[in-house]
Known about the structure:
Elements: H1 3-10, H2 17-23, H3 28-41, E1 54-58, E2 60-64, H4 92-104, E3 109-113, H5 122-135, E4 140-143, H6 146-156, H7 160-170, E5 174-175, H8 185-191, H9 198-210, E6 214-221, H10 227-244, E7 247-254, H11 269-282, E8 288-290, H12 293-296, H13 298-303, E9 311-314, H14 321-324, H15 333-342, E10 346-349
Parallel strand pairs: 1-9, 1-10, 2-3, 3-4, 5-6, 6-7, 7-8
Helix pairs in contact: 3-11, 6-9, 9-10
Amino acid sequence: MNRGLEKKIRAGERISPHEAGQLYEFPLALLGELANERRNLAKRSDYEGRGEEVVTYIVDRNINYTNVCDVYCKFCAFYRTETDPDHYVLSHEQIDRKIDELVAVGGNQILLQGGHHPKLGLDWYLDLLRHLRGKYPQVNVHGFSPPEFNHFAEVFRMPLEEVLRKFLEAGLGSIPGGGAEILVDRVRQRIAPRKCGTDAWLRVMEIGHGLGLRSSATMMFGHVETVEDRIEHLDRLRQLQDRTGGFTAFICWTFQPENTVLKAEKTGSHEYLRMQALSRIFLDNIPNVQSSWVTQGPAMGQVALQFGANDFGSLMMEENVVSSAGTSFRLTLEEMRRLIREAGYEPRQRNNGYQLLDHPPAGLVA
């Protein structure tokens, strides 16, 4: 084991992609310890000086406005074609009912994503965003992944920046990091050859950040990629963050192979923890790391809080994509808060900008 690298990490210094490859070979327990040290060094301005004690969560809801998609990713069990009997496009009224249920439990965000529908026009999207902004001004629309925006630019025959600007003006609040999978084109060609390439994914985020839209960053691993591919993915994210500072959080999860065309042996929990910890250390300029209980299960999501994560993600009132692949976990708000407390942290609700929305318990410094 490289003691010099361990010392460098404990000193808070940046590591190189080559050193990340060496770090991957560290014992899992030590890797988690180092990731936790980095977690505690991260600057989170709204945590009242108590970043080591706090684990945040958000109350939001996934709304998949359509399951029609012409990309046919091999890892996806959610998409349908327009000829499938169970294809759909949600109406404003159907979306409103879902948001009403969210607001009733104190939620403040929707994750709005869909397939690459070949026939929905620009006005359909802008009308929806204006409707949501007018009826639910308190709810942030965290919507439309980079592959969707590249699809929009192509279908609408419009420059990407103009599409993003129009969506922002209509009410888009932030961009989710979906569709990243692995940001290496050789891998993307094998698992989703019709989806946008690495540079196109990053370009959406760079333009969005320049317009003032914040975003998350993600990685889905455990299929056809190598460890070196994973590190290249992280390096591309870190380079963009150095330029823009627009990523608020990073989330990684393992490929869920059930019911999908792409077949791979299911990646275990140890590998998930290893990659999350490594990501926390390497991504020294992204302040927040989410635990992925939705794919790993609540118990492993809780363990991940000891491997560099400072956020428990979303209450996830509704989830359709991962569950279509055979993985389905659900939590109540109290269960989520209990899991955080049991891990030794104070649960606090946040918004998309990682600002705390509730008050600390009595006796703690505010």
